[in-house]
Amino acid sequence: MFDEIDYLNLCDEVQNCENCFLCKHQFNDKIVGRKTKLSLEFLEDKNKCLILWIGQNPYHSDRSIIESVHKTFGRNDGTILRKLCGDTLLKFSAFTNLIRCSTDKNIANISIKKCLLWLEKDVNLIKPKYLIFLGKISSNYFNKKFGDKIITPKYTIYFLPHPGTFKYHKNDYFLQLYFKTKEELEKDIHGIFNI
């Protein structure tokens, strides 16, 4: 069962993080008067979360991961994620980033290493069955290539191209990776929830 208090505590911990140089050089949130660090967010039921989508890092203008998701996967890119994965998968999804601080620059491995503790806490909190890393930063960090799939006793881990890629490049191989992943996940989710 999802623990709301643990979730709120985790959000506070992320906001107060000073583990690396990004914390000191991130952009300030002019509206709420605090630095912007994005935590784990959900689209629907927190208790049915089976899939954790892990983006690269939020841009400085994003107020929330959901806003970032809508920008990257929704309004700006023609609902790419919905087209690639469908509403069924998104109902069972949560979203986070490898790096929590808002930035518009590429990320150094040292920052990824320091931010992994937040990803670990996200995973421990929601206990997803699937981890889906999006983009070349995470793939490169873990020495994986797009399409790699790792099965562990606890999780199945996928490495996929960032959906924003499809806005600029038509790549049939990348599309096949998404559709294959979608098919596998939907089959398993249908089996779990009898939907």
Task: Please give the order of strands in the largest beta sheet.
Answer: 3-5-4-6-8-7
The CATH homologous superfamily is named Uracil-DNA glycosylase-like domain
Q: From the coordinates shown, what is the CATH architecture?
A: 3-Layer(aba) Sandwich
Distance between the termini: 21 Å
Biggest β-sheet strands, sense, barrel: 6 strands, mixed
Q: Report the helical percentage.
A: 40-55%
On the 0-100 scale, what is the average pLDDT? Answer: 75
Q: List the helices and strands in order.
A: HHEEEEHHEHEHEEHH
Q: What is the fold named in CATH at topology level? A: Uracil-DNA Glycosylase, subunit E
Q: What is the radius of gyration computed over CA atoms, rounded to a whole number of angstroms?
A: 16 Å
Number of separate helices: 8
Number of spatially distinct domains: 1
Query: Can you identify the CATH class?
Result: Alpha Beta
Please state the overall shape, judged from the principal axes of the Cα atoms.
globular
What percentage of amino acids are in beta strands? 5-15%
